[in-house]
Amino acid sequence: MEAPSFAYSASSSSLFSLRKKPLSSPRFSRFGNTKQRNFSVRASSSGDSVVTLLDYGAGNVRSVRNAIRFLGFEIKDVQTPQDILNASRLVFPGVGAFAAAMEVLSKTGMDEALCSYIEKDRPFLGICLGLQLLFESSEENGPVKGLGLVPGTVGRFDSSNGFRVPHIGWNALQITKDSGILDDVGNHHVYFVHSYRAMPSDDNNEWISSTCDYGDKFISSIRRGNVHAVQFHPEKSGDVGLSILRRFLNPKSNMTKKPGEGNASKLAKRVIACLDVRANDKGDLVVTKGDQYDVREHTKENEVRNLGKPVDLAGQYYKDGADEVSFLNITGFRDFPLGDLPMLQVLQYTSENVFVPLTVGGGIRDFTDSTGRYYSSLEVASEYFRSGADKISIGSDAVYAAEEYIRTGVKTGKTSLEQISRVYGNQAVVVSIDPRRVYVKDPNDVKLKTIRVSNPGPNGEEYAWYQCTVNGGREGRPIGAYELAKAVEELGAGEILLNCIDCDGQGKGFDVDLIKLISDAVSIPVIASSGAGVPAHFSEVFSKTNASAALAAGIFHRKEVPIQSVKEHLLKEGIEVRI
User: Fold this and answer.
1) Per-residue pLDDT tens digits for 133-160
2) Is 250 annotated to bind ligand?
3) What are the residues whose beta carbons fall under 8 Å from the beta carbon of 97, sequence distance 6 or more?
4) What positions does the entry give for L-glutamine binding (predicted)?
5) What are residue 442's phi and psi, to 5 degrees?
6) DSSP letters along 185-244, please?
7) How much is the pTM?
């Protein structure tokens, strides 16, 4: 994962806590370099069950830790350059910005140690940015020099050809040579989330173990000897990803569970399970579901609708084949999210056994608690990331930011959307839009974007605009979904979760008019939400719009439609999905 810049403190176990004398970046050519090294490399004596982890404090590394532990290995965190050199196997799950990562590695002496370790052909696995840093340079806020071990420059995807950037989702690999760790991938999808990539060339061809097609062919993994690196996220790629990690951590192991046959040929459409989470009247955290955002039963007791326990349901949806799991803290708009320890614990416990991407939303904004202590939206988001979230979803705060941006035309850099995307990358920031239809007889009656709707309004109106709301749909704002989507893309959103209050809980299908309007207007991925009732609703939204994913909640919670049934239907309709 890449981000425009990184300037945030990390835990004491991260490289940010180290204070070493800065070293100049060496110049390297392939495995060789022109600098004398005084490092000694020896294998760790701490046993075959120990994995050394290079965590420099950016983003969600909890998922990698959980995957390693799930596979039965212990973790030793890098504290000094010598810890790298002593490692028997080293995993570098790079997240954040290329330049910031190189600065940290250089200042702490980790760049020298990494190059010495890799040049000695020690077991190494780089993930995402951990692959990109091995190259000579990156165009991300650059050019910025990399470690120089692999020839080539890391550049941004070209969105001018209609492909959405960031590249988010499950894509296929074209394996080009024996890579060892990819032996069980076959025709399976793996999970990518990035805006920058390295391109194949004659100079780096001998390194490439697989490529991926997304607008053009880019490098998805490299291998030389015991040195491996992947652009995708094995810790978020389900059973296939776990098999990749297992083969790296223990190459001689006999695989007890291998992934079944796959059908991957290109980027798949995603099916996402959403869990609306809130405390019930007894104080227990439950999954609920609204009917046009009303989550209470229409009974004498008027209790909160209880559809299950969040961690258990998330685990079940992972087993059922959900491509992502999204948690929405639906009372977060009025509560202080960092005071909501149960929600943080839900993320922590879920990420221990769910190895697909996790998104969390609700209440991500600046906040002052009852003691007068101020928390920035960045601090709130960072706590979610540290607890296991891969992406955070911003709702009401993004509406206010977009309104101000449209009014002034100025990016202040201070909004929650800008701060979080600047630190963690736009691929980690989802904007959730909650609009409702407003019918008009004449599109000239309003200054906002209107469309001709498929189904006329109650008085025969043929046109409508979509009014954005805040505070859980309770308050309408003078901004349309179209205007909001365009603004938040410019402010740093990497994905849009597009709801529709009119369709919520109705089971009559997604609002195709709305989803087509927004997915045609932006170049970032759009997730269709609200209204799914049968599998055919998913194929309809994918065939009639440019949505990258479709999300459902109630039909999954009530077991009316299994996730696998949705995917089987999509396959029959010729729509690529992960199986």
Assistant:
1) 999 999 998 799 999 999 999 999 998 8
2) no
3) 2, 3, 4, 5, 6, 58, 140, 141, 425
4) 128
5) -130, 125
6) TTT-EEEEEESEEE---TTTGGGEEEEEEESEEEEEEEEETTEEEESS-GGGSHHHHHHH
7) 0.87
